[in-house]
Amino acid sequence: MKSSSSSASSSAASASSAFRRDHRGALGEADGIVPDGVTVFDDAKPAVTKLDPDLRKALRKAATAAADDGVEFHVNSGWRSPAYQNQLLREAVSEYGSEEEAARWVATAATSPHVSGDAVDAGPSDATEWLSEHGSAYGLCQIYENEPWHYELRTTAIGHHCPRMYADATEDPRMRH
Questions:
Q1: Are 97 and 78 in contact (CB under 8 A)?
Q2: Is 26 exposed, middle or buried (0-12, 13-18, 19+ CB in 10 A)?
Q3: β-bridge partners, 169
Q4: Quick check: helix, strand or coil at residue 86?
Q5: By C-alpha distance, which of 71, 73, 172, 69 is closest to 120?
Q6: Is the peptide bond preceding residue 82 cis, with omega within 30 degrees of 0?
Q7: Are 168 and 8 within 8 A, CB to CB?
Q8: Where are any strands of DSSP class E within 95-161?
Q9: Is residue 40 within 8 Å of 75, Cβ to Cβ?
Q10: Which pTM was predicted?
Q11: What is the pLDDT of residues 87-119, one digit of tens each?
């Protein structure tokens, strides 16, 4: 995204402004906030139920296999409302000091695969280690080198390997809207 960092900055600024305009109340589970201990089988949490059905199915198959190895998958973040995504972006800008640096970690609501239900942040670390080793068999691939917890469905990886990871989200062409 080096060549389009100014557009990323303006997109981030627009997303931050949209958050302030569109959502003044407290965010909760209905926005995709995940309490501790939620698994991929928890059908009572929008962060899980609003995931893409194929992604959710692949996660559940992988989690069932991982359980045989004594590993339990938790959903640290799944589907997110645009308001929640915008809050995370504002927090990242505050933490990292600039929209450009925040873009390495948090996408805008318009580009985030979490908002579309196409990404999950898994944990704990033994689950992400298991996914790193076995995830491609289920089409579950780590997308960013800097985010070992972030997985998306890539069905072309089944029986093969996951595609090369991006160093971070700024290299992902989907983030250039």
A1: no
A2: exposed
A3: none
A4: helix
A5: 73
A6: no
A7: no
A8: 120-123, 140-142, 150-153
A9: yes
A10: 0.84
A11: 999 999 999 999 999 999 999 999 999 999 999
